[in-house]
Model the fold of this input.
Amino acid sequence: MLGLSKKDTTFLVVVIFLTLMTPILLQPFPEGSVLAQFNAGYPDLMQRFAIYGIFAIGFNILFGLTGYLSFGHAAFLGVGSYSVVWMYKLLGYNVVPGLLLAVVTAGLFALLIGYISLRRSGIYFSILTLAFAQMSFNLAYSVLTPLTNGETGLQVYTDDPQILMGAGSPNSPHFFGIVMNESAKIDVGGWQFTFNNGYYFCAIIAIIVFYLSLRIFRSPFGIMLRAIKTNQTRMTYTGLNPRPYTLAAFVISGMYAGLAGGLLASMDPLAGAERMQWTASGEVVLMTILGGAGTLMGPILGAGFIKYFENIFSKINDDILHTWFAALPDGLEDAIVFMVHPFIGKGWSLTLGLLFMMVVIFLPGGLIEGGNRIWRLVTGRSRNRNTPGKDAQHHPKPTAHVN
Amino acid sequence: MDALILQFLNGLDKGSAYALIALGLTLIFGTLGVVNFAHGAMFMIGAFCAVAMQSMLNISKVTLDPTKLDFLGNPAQIRTPMVESLFGPELGGSIINWSVPLSILLAIPVMLALGFIMERGLIKHFYKRPHADQILVTFGLAIVLQEIIKYFYGANPIPTPAPDAFRGSIDFGVLIGYAQNTIIYPAWRLVYFTFSAVIIAAVFAFLQFTTFGMVVRAGMADRETVGLLGINIDKRFTIMFGIAAAVAGMAGAMYAPINSPNYHMGMDFLVLSFVVVVVGGMGSLPGAVLAGFLLGVVESFASMNEVKSLIPGIDQIIIYLIAIIILLTRPRGLMGRKGVMEE
Amino acid sequence: MGILEVSNVNKRFGGLQALGDVNLDIAQGTVHAIIGPNGAGKSTLLNVLIGKLVPDTGTVMFDGKSVLGRKPYEINQMGISRVFQTPEIFGDLTVFENMLIPCFAKRDGTFRLHALESIASEKGIIEKAEQMLSDVAMIDKRGMTASSLSRGDKRRLEMAMCLVQEPKLLLLDEPTAGMARADTNNTIELLNHIHESRDITMVIIEHDMHVVFSLAKRITVLAQGSPLVEDTPENIKGHPKVKEAYLGEAAA
Amino acid sequence: MSKFEINRRGLIKSGAAIGAGLALPTIFTRNAYAYVNEPKGATVTLGFNVPQSGPYADEGADELRAFQLAVEHLNGEGDGGMIGTFSSKMLKGNGILGKKVAYVSGDTQTKSDAARASAKSMIEKDGAIMISGGSSSGVAVAVQGLCQEAGVIFMAGLTHSNDTTGKDKKANGFRHFFNAYMSAAALGPVLKSLYGTDRSAYHLTADYTWGWTQEASMIAATEALGWKTVNKVLTPLAATDFSSYIAPVLNSGADVLVLNHYGGNMVNSLTQAVQFGLRDKQVNGKNFEIVVPLYSELMAKGAGKNIAGIVGSQNWDWKLEDEGTKSFVKSFGEKYGFPPSQAAQTCYAQTLLYADAVERAGTFDPCGVVEALEGFEFDGLGNGKTLYRKEDHQCFKDVLVVRGAENPQDEFHLVDIVEVTPVAQVTYEPENEMFAGGNLGKCNSGA
Done:
């Protein structure tokens, strides 16, 4: 179906199901319960899961398949966001023109940077991309402020032209009248589920681009990219020119990043310059490696993992801890709170750092490897048969080079 | 002209910090083939060695002085540093005053130990793993290290002044035949530059003139062959890791008076030091040093008002611009070897 | 006129004359071996043939076109395939995927963006790849990861990848280097089979005289950068000049 | 304005299908809200969004302490702090409108993106009805914009840029902290009396919006005194080594260096300027002086002894002698062991002001709160008589001019108060060109 094998079709159906059910699945604990703190089913975070999932899927097409490690993809994310907000300012709040522009400008920008950077390989390539992105960030923050509104971030002002805004047009981002920040809340028993327009908009786009990436993985182009990662010498002596292949992968992943950046601004009409900083580029690298580079689902898992910790763990404070352990005797309660305290709230990055280390030490293939292990355990299939999980055939062997 | 000399001095000074960090990073790349994202954190921990030394010397005996009141109206606490009560206020005072240079004595063993533990406990298991995994694990480690520092020292910068003797500036211009008050330069920055030059020279001498160094250099060129010769190169590489950490640590400790240490200063230097190493060329120690000084000097000149008025914002991007130009004209940086981290 | 003509090629590296006045004329359909003691210039000559080195003087014409200054992938597209000393294959890919790549390269040229087409729909390509794998008796290993193959199978796979492109000329750089005897014999058998069934011109650079004499129809002996003799294997055996050149080395 | 949670009925239809699919017995929806996150239970939730990682984490921690203290006092725990001295007597220590105050906290990371994400989760997940906190203007403007769209109140924390209540002002946003214009207006007369009217200033300015507004304000104020501006140089925000920018100052003919830097930038540029010996020099026959327009005690600590004698401005200082300050310092000091920073004070005051406005309005409805706060005059929160101006939601109150302490009595004594500049001197017209271009818009309650 859809040009996919039966296995891939099943896989895609599972992904679609999970994506559409996210508002329910991420809300496992009833409202008001002690563990409700761990619920992640609110619009902003779900949107971020989908958007950073898209970013990571795109990055994986470059890094996972070709092995070229870009440290500058945040630049495309930023360009995408700025494009969308500029379209808001000039035309109006419909997200479509902005998203189209975001993909196109990010693609062109990627073409330029990729064309230059891909003249080098390995770490030299990584540093070239990093240099371009850092230049973009530094300029966006300072000299280019008329274009980017600098530190504050680009936003819509009431005196912007917005020439396509009719009297009845919604006054916030919308898709032909479907307003992104509108939600339906449904209470079922003790649970409350939020079905947000913006989330479903992102989710549908995420499913489409996931499907595209699945097609790319299974296409002749996908094989060529993996061949580049494995052996460029054989590639050239087989009559193939690796450069246009890597450049195409770079541009495609740049467009994914631009789309993700555009969606960020579609959910929340503000484009901050920090989106272009090296830390943002590093984040997508971490997401991809953490989840499992070169696998289809890995990067999405990695994106979800990091965003979850950033948004959920940073909000747990001592008061919440005390309510959790309130049932315990006072001394014990204080002791436990004291022990847990460094890892939550402002210590969320410590927890994240430790988890990075644990995952990479114990699960060399990333989170997806953990998933595969559990899968094997559940299905009871033996380990030594090297049973393929969903993704095993694209699982990268640990090879001894960055790229 | 005097403005140019001033900026040249600034460049050398910036460059010596870059060079020291890049040197350690290259030692680790070159000998171990490991991408160490925690190297910036080593620099940061070095700087906190200076902070720790200062607070250790300031461990005080507390007495209450009922004649004075603190902000809540309670009797004020009078703190007398132990060192002062031990050696008398005069000598004790000057020991405290010299805490930053003294912290080198703390930084060397601490950083060597940290380096050994890191290499044996963690990095060792990642030699055969992809560079991507190395990046993830060392980045995780960098976060953990800086969060630990934040837990104990907070997020604010902590003042760590240079000894009084070097706190002010000296009239450098007079020394090289200029009029008075034309080239004024902070004394501590001159100390820092001299210190860096000594460390860099020492590292090179160590690699050049000792058997140990020769084996390591041979190992950098061809690890397998050296291994075949029956030399335990792994052990030496562990020591090199310790040395690299110690170099970064000393660079950080001595930098503390210039840049008040804070827990995330390592991340600020991380990206820059990678750029320096790559511009210098992977696996080349002289390249790292050369690139460090080059980028430092170029950055300083780009910060001059005359240049900035020509090209606004040039000082924000000059390092990256130079990096791009060099990498496009010289495929392996200034002095890189073929095949290192190129696949 | 041969398919590959090397005329008056000279190449110096500093003071060293690596190649001096090399003239070679390789006939269509032959198996031509280039032998010579260490340092005779075999590798330099090979690198000139594949365009990696540009000679100081002289020309290299393949099929009437110059190969000099062309990129490796252009030379391949002209019809020259190369087998390396250590097999160069796509280690992370399966045997079958390895075979697909040359098939696509043959059909689509140096670059084509088939990003959304499914491999499964490429019936012709799949058939061709499977056929080739059957020909080299590797069809039962199609799902294996290439890096896990034995040395002999890697060589077999590399050869198959070259052959599936139907090259006019196959360059082999010490195809049996480092192989066990049994693997060497298998490889010789394979090459002979290929030559007989496909009529491909082959140029072999080889050390091992057993291999050379089992395969070659003509042999050029290179010494100190220049061709010493060119003749049939029968005549090369026991040729005095050749013995002289190999003095001290174990001739076969 | 945008609607956040409305159109409920239409959406429920589509949602109901999914809900019914779950085949769970009780499907019901909450009563329609009159405004977003209307508190229905026995508690009301406030959101404190402060930097917990990054360079301002300590400032954020201090803000959070103040918020926690304010919540305690509102709920009737502790000694009541400034509730006792506050001129409005609506707060009784029984929560807000009888509802117990709960709070959630989050990390802005001092990035507008992260700050908005954190604020959104407070609004969407935790049902926060008011957001407060923050330690930079970029974040304040970004979160203020978000609160306007979402329909909750934003009580800004530490934000000093003119834009927060100028170009980027919003109906749902309120700023208690002072701003760059006020700093400059307060510093002017003091600089004149200390350093005279014949001075040449050299500006080093952090290259982002706050830096620019600070620089513009300072230039306007000093030039009005008759000072000349020799040069103004932008420095990268990420810079840690300012030597290249400081080196040319001494030979430029300037005799005053104005550091329009904040936080880590300020610590490093000031430390390094002192190391360059600027303060020991004589230029044009006058002592060379350094001015840091915006002081932050927490950051000043990082510069150590280098701040001695350096003049700057503050919103508030714990050494003030009024009753409000005294009781606040007492309850803060007793709880945490050290005196509060000005960031803590502004956050504490903002929380009380919000609670009081709700009490006076008799509703949590943001539009009611806005109305109650606009034009509100009060006293007893440490800054003397203060007005929340209706036109731009900026507080007008006295500004402190301070000077780095030469002989600190203890580790908390960082600055001496030079002068309390009366409010009249720092007041400006809402149409002032430095604040022009903005538009409050209408209050948004999300309904």
Q: What stands out?
A: Residues 181-314 of chain D form a domain with the Rossmann fold fold (CATH 3.40.50.2300). The first strand of chain D starts at residue 27 and ends at 28. Residues 1-31 of chain D have pLDDT under 50 and may be disordered.
